[in-house]
Design goal:
6 strands; single chain; alpha+beta
């Protein structure tokens, strides 16, 4: 697979949010709000992780990768399995991937990471005519 570019890790934001939950400044219902579409995507397109849910501590979190990009057409904004990401990276222009962790028990969800995959766009050609100056 092509190398992930422009990687953004949201671990600090996650840690801050969990500290607020544990301190009682943020209610658990505000962070355990995964919609049914995300929970289904976790079931069918997600991959397991070694991280236990920080809220319910009942099960391992599932990672779901969402793809976004103009060159993706109708699949933009959908969840994709890791194998599909490899195929897309080899055949498509740049697109972004957002990885969300989700607990299928308590509905905790949080954006973990985002990055860019795919072929960089082709450079645009410059005109090869004579340059004009301001004096002309």
């Amino acid at each position: 697979m092509r190398i992930q570019r422009q990687v953004v890790d949201y671990a600090l934001r996650r840690r801050s949010l969990l500290a607020d939950v544990y301190a009682g400044r943020v209610d658990v219902s505000e962070v355990c709000d995964a919609n049914p579409y995300l929970l289904r995507a976790a079931k069918f397109h997600g991959r397991g992780s070694d991280v236990t849910c920080p809220i319910c501590r009942k099960e391992q979190l599932t990672l779901v990768s969402w793809v976004y990009g103009d060159g993706l057409g109708p699949i933009a904004g959908s969840a994709r399995a890791p194998e599909e990401l490899i195929r897309l990276a080899e055949s498509r222009e740049e697109f972004s991937v957002h990885v969300v962790e989700v607990c299928r028990s308590c509905s905790w969800n949080h954006l973990v990471q985002s990055y860019v995959l795919g072929h960089p766009p082709a450079p645009t050609r410059r005109r090869t005519g004579a340059r004009r100056t301001a004096a002309e």
